[in-house]
Amino acid sequence: MKERKDLLKEEGMHAGAPADKFAFARILRNLETPQEKKLWNFLRTKPKDIKFRRQHPFKDYIFDFYCHKAKLVIEIDGHQHESNQQYDKDRTEIIQGYGLKVIRFENREIDDNFEIVIKKLMKYF
């Protein structure tokens, strides 16, 4: 566990993300899905005084939402993730290697069970 924390501390909260990831993240912020918008409207209120960032560049990835203080990554999976399950699994393992927790929600969970999504999230802080 110590190695993971040291790796994140050494590489920083962006883990050396290249400039093109920052540019793409800016574009994604303007193209948010309805589910991302709904969750962001909640997260931007800083629940329990926890600050989240949206479309956060990290290494070669862009997190949907990230809280550095809680070491928490939130991903919202749409239809494209159905065919990319192995990629998502590998990506999650790499992210967890930095001592970060990853929680995933499907679009339909945000749409149909938002209160349950919030309850699950609140357990992480």
Describe this structure in words.
The chain has helices at 2-11, 19-29, 34-43, 85-96, 107-112, 114-122, and strands at residues 53-58, 61-67, 72-77, 101-106. Strands 1-2-3-4 form a 4-stranded mixed sheet, with helices on both faces. It starts with a helix and ends with a helix. The longest helix has 12 residues, at 85-96. The protein is globular. The model has no long low-confidence stretch (mean pLDDT 90). A hairpin with a 4-residue loop joins strand 2 (61-67) and strand 3 (72-77). It is an alpha+beta fold and 125 residues long. It is built from 6 helices and 4 strands; from the N terminus they run αααβββαβαα. It has a single domain (2-122), classed as 3-Layer(aba) Sandwich (Endonuclease, Chain A).
Describe, in short, the structure shown.
The protein is α+β, with helices and mostly antiparallel strands and 125 residues long. It contains 6 helices and 4 strands.
Could you tell me the CATH topology label: Endonuclease, Chain A
- Class inferred from helices and paired strands: alpha+beta
Query: For this structure, what is the CATH homologous superfamily?
Result: VSR Endonuclease
Head-to-tail CA distance between termini: 19 Å
Radius of gyration using CA atoms only? 14 Å
CATH class: Alpha Beta
Element-level helix/strand string: HHHEEEHEHH
